[in-house]
């Protein structure tokens, strides 16, 4: 039976290439892999903490993994570095810390495609597990923007039109250059844009700052799930800024 390797963030391409070569099963620990309540992590993590990283710990607590690669460099966050320390102390699984400084861009065809935003996000996050080039996508003319990180709760993405383009760190993910700050800072001032970051994520500061510079922007964050209030804000903003 092949090994199961957990990843957190975007490990360097050389790591993914080696995992693909050995045909290991890659498990994205940033995404919920089981239905256990996230509060089970309270023994090890503060409740007021990034829900994505709490999800990482929850997954590791309940999944059988042979090894974990976690990006602790500028392509992820300092919090991931601390989580790597926690995982090392509470699990016997080898924890390999990486720092993704890759500069070779793969392009961002999915971010600019005509696919529904939910499908765009699923394709981008799944793409982290491979070094293969992307399948060409038909580009769309943008009518809205989503800037930020992949939310823990993907359901909020279903509220956006298919002509939503993705910016921020998610675009860096697709380009396979998660530490590319120039690309992360980029946004389109000509389209209404929601600047999103997971609650208690360090990127909330950048999201809020860029939202103040954008002429038609909504800054928002959400914790574990996108509640009715957050969903209502997204729907109202997109409707009011529609041309």
Which helices and strands occur, and which strands form pairs?
Layout lengths: L3 E5 L4 H9 L3 E4 L22 H12 L4 E5 L6 H13 L4 E4 L18 H11 L16 E5 L15 E4 L1 H7 L5 H5 L7 E6 L5 H10 L3 E6 L5 H13 L3
Parallel strand pairs: 1-2, 1-3, 3-4, 5-6, 5-7, 7-8
Helix pairs in contact: 4-5
Task: Describe the model.
- The protein is an alpha/beta fold and 243 residues long.
- The chain folds into two domains: 4-98, Rossmann fold (3-Layer(aba) Sandwich), CATH 3.40.50.11890; 117-240, no CATH class.
- It is built from eight helices and eight strands, in the order E-H-E-H-E-H-E-H-E-E-H-H-E-H-E-H.
- Helix 4 crosses helix 5 (169-175).
- The radius of gyration is 17 Å and the shape is globular.
Task: Note the total helix count.
Answer: 8
- Main beta-sheet strand count, sense and barrel state: 4 strands, parallel
Radius of gyration, taken over Cα atoms and rounded to an integer in Å: 17 Å
Provide the succession of SSEs: EHEHEHEHEEHHEHEH
- β-strand percent reads 15-25%
Cα-to-Cα separation, first versus last residue: 54 Å
What level of helicity do the residues show?
Answer: 25-40%
Mean pLDDT over the full residue set:
93
pLDDT < 50 runs, ≥5 residues: none
Count of separate structural domains: 2
User: Could you tell me the number of beta strands?
Assistant: 8
Identify the overall geometry: globular
- Helices and strands: which structural class? alpha/beta
Strand order of the largest sheet: 2-1-3-4
